[in-house]
């Protein structure tokens, strides 16, 4: 159904990179992306924790910022340990498979972003994510190791068989979720140029729609874009 990429932002412990690689491989995933990671390439600790998954480390792509790491993805999901004050809907890791499956053939690539060991993802990164997700935990100790969080998401998606039917979506360039995001961005730049909060909320709600509603949204956006172009707004 969709290719899943796991993106670690500024991981500081080589062992966590190795353990995350092991988690991915045991669950059938292989796309590990690292944003400004620590020096892990020659780390014996990373190799030790990878335990048979060194190939995932060796083929991991390295980026200088989150935008570069996610620019080719249809849907970007930020992960957080707890709900924050920023305006977002929060979806449990158990809800993600349903949200992804209902997009059908219009969704090809998904990225899950994980923050640093100490502070997680900053609000400015979460703000740019299409969806924000969390792992339900006891209030007594609401914290997980980075690689443990990666394993929980990998296991949850593995059980749902999200990545078992990877295929290029039909009419990807015309009707895909990524194409809809691009259309919405153009429209909101015209009608909501000075209201980033409202624009962000609209985009967020659009990203949880199912396949039928995505097709409908494309039709509406096409009409709006045609109208804007005729009137010289674009």
Overview of the structural elements:
The protein has eleven helices and seven strands. The mean pLDDT is 88. The protein starts with a strand and ends with a helix. The protein folds into two domains: 157 residues, SPOUT methyltransferase, trefoil knot domain (Alpha/beta knot, 3-Layer(aba) Sandwich), CATH 3.40.1280; 59 residues. The chain has 234 residues and is an alpha/beta fold. Helix content is 45%, strand content 15%. The longest helix has 20 residues. The chain has a seven-stranded parallel β-sheet.
Quick take:
By secondary structure, the chain is α/β, with parallel strands linked by helices.
> Can you tell me the CATH class of the largest domain?
Alpha Beta
Q: H/E order of the elements?
A: EHEHHEHEEHEHEHHHHH
- As a whole number of angstroms, the C-alpha radius of gyration is 18 Å
Q: What's the main sheet like? A: 7 strands, parallel
Give the class from helix and strand content and strand pairing: alpha/beta
User: In percent, how much strand structure appears in the residues?
Assistant: 5-15%
Kindly report the spatial arrangement of strands forming the biggest sheet: 3-2-1-6-4-7-5
CATH fold group of the largest domain: Alpha/beta knot
Mean pLDDT across residues:
88
- The CATH superfamily of the largest domain is identified as SPOUT methyltransferase, trefoil knot domain
Question: Which regions have little confidence, pLDDT < 50, spanning 5+ residues?
Answer: none
